[in-house]
Amino acid sequence: MGGFSLFHWLILGILILLLFGGNRFSAMMGDVAKGLKSFKQGLSDDDEEAKRKAEEARRIGSPERPIDVTPNPRVADPVTPPPSDTTPR
User: In which residue ranges is the amino acid composition biased (Basic and acidic residues) (predicted)?
Assistant: First the structure.
């Protein structure tokens, strides 16, 4: 009266194999496995995307090295005219 016994599970398995056939049943299980693999890959892609965004936000929020704002002496001053070329040709 309780649950299924081993004998009941064997009969159920044989009926499923007869109904779907061995080849079709294995093809369906292959499709289920592919679906699970795709699902897991999608989850890991989402995790990688979240990690990349968090790393980018951390990098933008606190730069690894301070920004150098000292003037570069090699850059020409836009206010003063460039020196005249006094070399003979």
Answer: 49-67
